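tool_call: predict_structure(chain=1)
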Amino acid sequence: MELDDCRGIRRWPIVKDIDERRLRGCAVLSNDKAMSEKVSLAQASEKGSDGTLATARRYAPLQDTFGRTFDYVRIAITEKCNLRCTYCMPEEGVDFKNGEQILTADEILRTINVLAGMGVKKVRFTGGEPLVRKDIVKLVEGAANTPGIKSVHLTTNGIIFPKYAQQLRDAGLTGVNISLDTFDPKKFKDITRRDGEEKVLAAIRHAIEVGFPRVKVNAVIMRGFNDGEMKLFTELTKDMPVTVRFIEFMPFDAHQIWETGEYFLSAESMIKYLKETYPDIELASGTRTEHHIFQVPGYAGKIAIIPAFTRSLCGNCSRIRLTADGGIRNCLYSDQEYSLRDLLRQGCTDDDIVATFRKAFHEKARDGFESKKRSASKVSTIKFEGRVSMTQIGG
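tool_result:
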């Protein structure tokens, strides 16, 4: 094992083949039974945000059979949303889960604590629209105070963000992604079925004013609809220290009306446009999910390209997804889920939680194409059938 020079925490080597030898005495992973996960009895003491020492159980990292390590969890905390985006949700809406169907704050925070023990460092709260959940500030504060968690982020449509921005910053939120697909009021309403583009722009400005370390703008680019605004979005980075992320369109509406070549614009085409429009544009640094990132010389912010649909970033995947109703998803394109909610409510131990995550990621496909192929070729026997909207999966 290596030692992290900054914090003195043991860092486990990458596991290429999941077996007893590779895990060095850890429980053997099996498809036949839940894994008893007494994988590491080492303890790591870390300082909490209040300066006191907190002790967290340490487990071997969460890895799959391809040697990928998963240290970033995206948690949908609600299916509800105050917009009705066409590529996310059918016009008639969906039957949102609520009440006891949704994970409680305590269940979410317990899960984060266990995942932190497996090496997860980054948490992102999504939805639906996460700000419609009343205990969002409590969730952010709890995640930020969890030993091992280094950053807590939020993805929001921005409509009501200014109301909560300062509370969230004080609670420990380190980054916010705000979704905006167009500057045109009519197009905004065409996409979201609501008014509000000025509110979203105000939310972006407010996030900068409040002082969030990382502010990003998510723009889903659709050929023939908003691709003509790519320059406007790029110019947003001239004076604003934000990263504008051009995202390949992923159709998750119920009728898949957007899943045609007519609307799809590839990451490669976006990169070509940027280089032609800004010949002096330079490569820049970004996160693992920002597969291509650029900066126009002299501009305050950056531009990132996310190949979400062409899936060229699968080899670097580090994401864990948890739906609002407690389904673990090892890939956005997979229909296979593993119920964490039922496990939590049956009085499980932390080792049981670890074992369930290990099983889910031991069965992860090589990439999103294989995941989708697996899902299409089998008859589903899971309880989570019928997700017809991205808001039910988690953005």
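agent: The two ends are 35 Å apart (CA to CA). Proceeding to next step.
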